[in-house]
Amino acid sequence: MKFATIGTNWITSTFIESAHKSGKLTLKAVYSRSINKAKEFAAKHSVSLYFNDMTELAKHPEIDIVYIASPNSLHFEHAKLLLENNKHVICEKPIFSNMKEFTEAHKIANDHGVYLFEAIRNIHTPNINQLMKQLPKIGTIRSALLHYVQYSSRYDAFLEGNTPNVFSTEFSGGALVDLGVYPLSVAIKLFGKPLSYSYHPTILRSGVDGNGTLILRYKEFVCTIICSKISHSYIQNEIHGETGSILMDSATPTSLELINNKTKERKSIGVDQEELDMIYEIDTFTNIIENNDQTAYSELTQISETILSITETVRKQNNIIFQSDK
Fold first, then answer.
1. What is the spatial distance between Cα 99 and Cα 83, in angstroms, rounded to a whole number?
2. What is the pLDDT of residue 318?
3. CA dihedral for 201, 97, 284, 30, sign (positive or negative)
């Protein structure tokens, strides 16, 4: 399939590189609001077709699928136009700002017979699949600590009085939707939808959360999720069971370790995976399209819906209101 991209930042380049390595997608065109940036980005990735007009991109007959990596608040309007023009869409996380956008976009996708995916890469990797297989070995789960705590390269600019997109309610920013969705997606993939949840954030002057702790309550345990863009963590992610624990180097794990509670024996259970781990979500999405795998598609859609319903609910409980909500 031939694909186009929206956005010219590093994550778009990484997706293009991953797509090329997967062999499943061929880059056809790129888009930027700036025609000069679009031209430069096209040259960088050796394609001749570039746009600064979204409608022209959406209507181009040789494009099958579009990867969206625009600012969060623009995801819905971009996806809507593309879906209405029968393009499959891969939308970078967070897929949308609220459930109203999610519901409408999926209705459009269904009406036009195309697919809409959220590009939350960690849940498609071999090590997350390995984690799911190994989880029964630690017995009844009693607690979990998952986190993504990373000092943002844009926070210094924020402290100087600027408001980068990731710290802006206008562009649907904040720690939970930008970083917290990674550990949250792991929790939903492993444990399903929680019985209840609450969020305890630090609100910045711009109205978004700089960091926070999300509590997910399940029948027999609590999963604690910590996210931050204003501090940094150096500890592992852990899942604690009655007979053992599993340690992960991050919410996008490249290493896994199983520890027996009685013997204290430590065993590496991680598997090798590509450094360009976006390749795995690309494989998943293209396989669903090629095989019309409605079961797999429904499972992914449910995960995205659960994540967004949780983040929207706790945002509003803490008066974190995006402009898209109004």
1. 17
2. 98
3. negative
